[in-house]
Amino acid sequence: MAYVVTEACIKCKYTDCVDICPVDCFREGPNFLVIDPDECIDCTLCVPECPAEAIFAEDDVPENQRAFIALNAELASKWPAIIERKAPPPDADEWKGVGDKLRLLQR
């Protein structure tokens, strides 16, 4: 069972989770991070590090966020690995807690 980044990450893209990941399973897109399900070792270390509370165990992904399971797998195969923490976007805090952001996802 892999962990999944959900909608709360869109436009926030905090990378606190990247620093703690022992297997470098995060992938970076323009305004979102995903977890490569083939690389994730289910260590749970990233979950408490996410300021946006966007990371869930696959079995615990909220029903209205289940599409992000497939989306993480799809985008992880296309996006490059991110292995070091970066500064979040300047307006990340403004987007934290905002819902209905899937339409804003940049591929």
Which percent range describes the beta-strand content?
A: 5-15%
CATH names the topology as Alpha-Beta Plaits
Q: What is the CATH class designation?
A: Alpha Beta
**What's the end-to-end separation, in Å?**
25 Å
Give the helix tally. Answer: 3
- Please state how the strands of the largest beta sheet are arranged side by side: 1-4
Q: Tell me the major beta sheet.
A: 2 strands, antiparallel
* Relative helix content: 10-25%
Describe this structure in words.
- This protein is an alpha+beta fold and 107 residues long.
- It has a single domain, classed as Alpha-Beta Plaits, CATH 3.30.70.20.
- It has 3 helices and 4 strands.
- It has helices spanning 16-20, 67-76, 92-95; strands spanning 3-5, 26-28, 33-35, 55-57.
- It has a two-stranded antiparallel ribbon.
- A hairpin with a 4-residue loop joins β2 and β3.
- The model has no long low-confidence stretch (mean pLDDT 97).
